[in-house]
Amino acid sequence: MIIVGVVGSGAMGSGIAQVAATAGHQVLLYDKQPDALRRAQTELTRIMDRQVEKGRLTAAEAAAIQQRICYTLDQADLSVAGLVIEAIVERLDVKKALFEELEGLLREDAVLATNTSSLAVTAIAAACKKPGRVLGLHFFNPAPLMALVEVIPAVQTDPTTTQWALQLMQDWGKIPVLAKDTPGFIVNRVARPFYGEALRIYDEGLADIATIDWAMTELGGFRMGPFALMDYIGHDVNYLVTETVFTAFYFDPRYKPSFTQQRLVDAGYLGRKTGRGFYDYASGATPPLPNTDPALGQAILHRILVMLINEAADAVYLGVATPAAIELAMTRGVNYPRGLLAWANELGLPYVVAQLDAHYREYHEERYRCSPLLRRLAREGQHFAGL
Ligand code: NAI
């Protein structure tokens, strides 16, 4: 069994190290900050203790997982690894410098993976002399709990590297989906309207945050409403992803960020972690009540839903992933209650197209343009197949 190296022991790196150690690998977790390594070790002990308390692991299993992880401040220790997964700061220059250094250290046949969520894997791979062994392995937070892993070959990646990584992720008990190296890959692209269209509805004054959240959870079956979820993720993080995707898509209006969210970031109202975002998390604060008018709720749900469906359809149309991969990604990466394409089939594709076209006529904005694939399938009386 190969030794797995992980670079960066923050939230993602330590979670990935836990996953690899649980799958039976010896793991080398490297960080340049001693404090970060200490925190990762303490946190893993806490997690393992809870697993034992809950009866999910025996004390011996938990101890074995912990013993398989070796914490190191010395990058050179990674030289024995057969796979290194990078989870450091999200900056292209820093990641490229790291990959160049790692290539000098590692065996010829070792695979290098990046956990980037918003940078081009191809650009990172370009830092290496042998980019054929570089690819993206995008885990979701928290990595031990979220089954989805987006596997992203760079333009340069050798197909055998991709196949090997897909198999390895399956061996780790993950659900790997293949995604093209395009901005946001699958999940961070298709999910944009969940936030963006909710913000737009709010900005237009059509409904307040409590009502929009109520419509999406109670009528739509989503685990969290968009505003509660943005507060949970943190507006700094969520806004940055939106802005990065928007820029990467050459300012396609479909991904336009919201001033409302930017102002929350400006104000330092970052969500739960600062005690205030869209909602007030101070103890004793009264949560706002939704307007539970069913017609209003249905209109909100369908407006956000058709935008999500349009995004999923366009991802199929542009070859970002297969329909089945997109369904898995959204249900297992962000826990959507159902696959968006199956949902579209049930609503009826002509209905989805008619809704989008109605918004397009109303607003005259590119944001509401219907995906050509959706329109063609609807016209031909077909539905999304291969889900
Ligand atoms: P974090 O900030 O919690 O941890 C990053 C760690 O990397 C820190 O401990 C830092 O000391 C270390 N580090 C930075 N530069 C380094 C270098 N040159 N060499 C060695 N160690 C270095 O970050 P987080 O949230 O764990 O994210 C890491 C990566 O994973 C980023 O690329 C991010 O985009 C990606 N990601 C994050 C997700 C999230 O929800 N937080 C989800 C999926 C991917």
Model description:
- This protein is 51% helix and 9% strand.
- With 387 residues, the protein is an alpha/beta fold.
- An eight-stranded mixed β-sheet has the order 3-2-1-4-5-6-7-8, sandwiched between helices.
- The longest helix has 24 residues, at 294-317.
- The model has no long low-confidence stretch (mean pLDDT 97).
- It binds 1,4-dihydronicotinamide adenine dinucleotide.
- 1,4-dihydronicotinamide adenine dinucleotide (NAI) binds next to helix 1 and helix 4.
Q: What order do the helices and strands come in, and which of them pair?
A:
Layout lengths: L3 E4 L3 H12 L4 E4 L3 H20 L5 H10 E4 L10 E4 L5 H14 L5 E4 L6 H5 L8 E6 L8 E6 L5 H13 L3 E4 L8 H4 L1 H12 L5 H11 L6 H8 L1 H14 L10 H9 L26 H24 L5 H11 L6 H8 L1 H15 L8 H8 L8
Parallel strand pairs: 1-2, 1-4, 2-3, 4-5, 5-6, 7-8
Antiparallel strand pairs: 6-7
The site of 1,4-dihydronicotinamide adenine dinucleotide has 23 residues, from helix 1 and helix 4.
